[in-house]
Amino acid sequence: MRTLLLGVVTASALVLATPTFAAAAPASAPAADGTSAPASARAADGTSAPGSAPGSAPAFSGTGRSSASLHGWARLDLFGPVPEPSQLITLAVDAHATGRPSTGGRGHATIQHVFDRDTDREFTARAEIRVDCLTERDGTVVLTGSVDSVTYTAGPALDPVPPFPGDWHPEVALGLRHDEQGRLRVGWSGVPAQPTAPPVATACQAPTDAGLHLVRGGFAFRR
């Protein structure tokens, strides 16, 4: 099921309460899946891990600041907080809001999905996103941006995948919220399947659903 980057992930989620601090384990502590939260400049999947490294405990914190920012790295999963071993989904964010109230943003985000890990059918899709808005609406932290690039890596048992059009930069969206149990959920709009497909996101608007579960890592949101 290769639908995370090429299409919209759908799942239900409940609106969260105000973001609260969560304790973080030492960054050097390995996870059960063998990955480690980024201790310095690189995450376990090769994505950049901006700012201070989150630990292995679920974390999403908010503090009162005059200028909003969102930093962090996390492993996510489509099916629950216990990861599906054959898949690896990671998200890294380094973003700042612009405007008062926030009507824009700058920075970068990377989302990557690996399917059929450690087999000859392993497939990786990785999207690099240029942030154009970071804001908070109704308890959801919203990040939107245009796709700088999408790269695909296919295992030897798979047919070659056509490259993503280099001159196509569709809008995409992420939304971070807590559910009623206080667990972080992440919404992801996906990337349209082709340039002629309808848009999947609008600047400064959160995805409708939050179908990704936090496995480990976390994000710091300052507003």
Task: Give a structural overview.
This protein is mainly beta and 223 residues long. Helices cover 0% and strands 41% of the residues. It is built from no helices and nine strands. The chain has strands at residues 59-63, 69-77, 88-98, 104-115, 123-137, 140-154, 171-178, 184-188, 212-222. Strands 2-3-4-5-6-7-8-9 form an eight-stranded antiparallel barrel. Strand 5 (123-137) and strand 6 (140-154) form a beta hairpin. It is globular, with a radius of gyration of 16 Å. Mean pLDDT is 77; it is low at 6-58.
Cα-to-Cα separation, first versus last residue: 37 Å
Uncertain spans, ≥5 residues at pLDDT below 50?
6-58
* Rounded Rg: 16 Å
The average pLDDT score comes to 77
Task: Trace the largest sheet across and list its strands.
Answer: 2-3-4-5-6-7-8-9
Major pleated sheet: 8 strands, antiparallel, barrel
Give the SSE layout.
Elements: E1 59-63, E2 69-77, E3 88-98, E4 104-115, E5 123-137, E6 140-154, E7 171-178, E8 184-188, E9 212-222
Parallel strand pairs: 1-9
Antiparallel strand pairs: 2-3, 2-9, 3-4, 4-5, 5-6, 6-7, 7-8, 8-9
